[in-house]
Amino acid sequence: MFRNYLLTAWKVFMRRKLFTAINLLCIVLTLVVLMVIASLLETAFRPSGVEGKSDRFLQVLMMRMEGPKGNRVSTTLPGYKLIEKYLKPMPGVERVAAVTLPASVSVYQGLNVSELMMRRADADYWKVLDFRLLAGRLPTSADDAAGRMIAVLNASSAQRLFAGTPKQAVGQRIDVGGQVFEVVGVVEDAMHLNAYADIWAPISTFPTSDYRNQLSGLFTALILAERAADLPRIQEQVARIAQGVVHDDPTEWNKIRFWADSKLDVFARILTQSTDTPDSGAGKLLAGIVVAMLLFMLLPALNLVNLNTGRIMERRSEIGVRKAFGATSSQLAVQLVVENVLLCLAGGLIALGATAGVLAWLESADLIPYLQVDLNLAVFGWGMLIATVFGLLSGVLPAWKMSRLDPVHALKGAV
Amino acid sequence: MIRLSNVSKTYRTDKVETLALKDIDLHVKKGEFVAMMGPSGCGKSTLLNLIGLLDRPGQGSVEVEGIPITRYRDKQVANLRNSTFGFIFQSFHLISDLRVIDNVELPLLYRKMSAAERRRLARQALEKVGLGARMDHYPNQLSGGQQQRVAIARAIVGEPQVLLADEPTGNLDSKMGEEVMDILLKLNEEGTTVVMVTHDEREARRTNRIVRVFDGQLVA
Fold first, then answer.
1. What ipTM was assigned to the predicted interfaces of this complex?
2. In chain A, which residues have pLDDT < 70?
3. pTM to 2 decimals?
4. Which residues of chain B neighbour A403 with C-beta distances below 8 Å?
5. Is A180 within 8 Å of A173 (Cβ atoms)?
6. Distance from CA of A319 to the nearest CA of B (A)
7. Is A404 exposed, middle or buried, given 0-12, 13-18 or 19+ CB atoms closer than 10 A?
8. Distance from the B154 Cα atom to the nearest Cα atom in chain A, whole angstroms
9. Which of A96, A110, A191, B151 has the fewest Cβ atoms surrounding its Cβ within 10 A?
10. What CATH number does the domain located at B2-219 have?
11. How far is CA A89 from CA A65, A76, A238, A255, in A?
């Protein structure tokens, strides 16, 4: 039966080549947009590249402080003191890293000034993330302890500042807002949430040591578990630790809350501003993304529904004959849905190729710095899933209409 | 074999109500060859559609082998059509995109049967109507007579007990019409019940019984 569906589908597609081409174009355009989004989401949230261990690390990015009567609420980044005093001593974790969010800095070279994004990180940061070292070395805890004025550049910045191979940048000096750093290493460009920056320096290179006494501040903590299975336990542990944190001025802020989140949770918490509950709102965010994708598919799907309905009208005779010879309404409905899904899957394959082209263009156009997106098996799977959903969305209604056709009228309406 | 009792059929549109058949009582016996005659628009095709379960009566009952099908669900009716009836239409209604052999196989697709068995039976049916050599042709590569023979092969491939033919020679010249008629008579001799709508008195006289329809009613 399925072979016959395939055969009929092929014949129907080839009967009206222009019609099929328009259908395919409509499908491909829709799917390319959705696949590009799926690829970007996949790259952002799946453990890969520099954040290859993200399936076993959690992040504390937001801290909520409440006043005694609950009338004042402040949401900030954690300070170094919070990470050093409360999170780093946590038992049952592999390591806890502290790193600032990227901040814009001016790098002076003679008369040239370059604006770069800089992070300050402790030595654990380089062990939690898997940067690919192109030349030199990465900072160590000894560098941090000694407050050595060293820096790591990414490949693009090294090229921009010193025009040569990464090796040639090592040993050079750069002036960052009046502080002079020696470049000790060059790493590959990376776009991931916690890796994005042009230049990195040890935390101890801050101009003052005030950061050491700040409970809230400029940092984020990356907590690396030994196993992914430990993450729920660590999340509970962090929530308990948060309850025990005492602010320097408890009369001002007497309640502190923070949560250890996965990458998706971090993203969701930022978007939903959900800072007072363990639930980051990731479920709602995912549901929102799915709904948005379905809505995006709806308009072209309606167009396709229209085209499919027209095609059915052309096939009234065939439908009448099939019904006369014993086809049930559901068999006919399945047939059209299969035809449509097949067309959408073919469109999906073409869209995959086109998506690869769009992503290559996005990477080279530098619209998103250091973007590297792979069209891997997961994206292929997502693409085919989207294509199938699109096929079902645009095929079920015409199929249902077709299955309701009265055989007598279908046969009369035929040429 | 098939009994219609007190059957009426009315077609309704927004403004008009047309009584297509009124109080029809008809019994088609097993092995009969019945010709239905009457002027255009008198209700012959409607009657044939009711016999073949393509349509349901507004009033009255239709029995197949003594079983009333009035309360049958669509799926049951579809199964009964598939197992009991074969249809031949005036305009052939072959699927132009499919090869002759695939067209003939069509009724068997809705039965539990292997692809090889389907192919064997379709070949057999085509050989029976003398088109064994045209299996891989497409319908538009055949003459009208050959197309109608393909349609007959499609109608008989599932070995139905009843063949329903709606003006099967209406689109054919007299020679080809004669050939088709010969095939139908041969099938009837082999035991298949045939009900045929025709305008041709000569063809009708070759059958066992002529049923005349006029203004939606059977006339003597």
1. 0.93
2. 1, 413-415
3. 0.66
4. none
5. yes
6. 10
7. exposed
8. 9
9. A110
10. 3.40.50.300
11. 22, 22, 11, 21
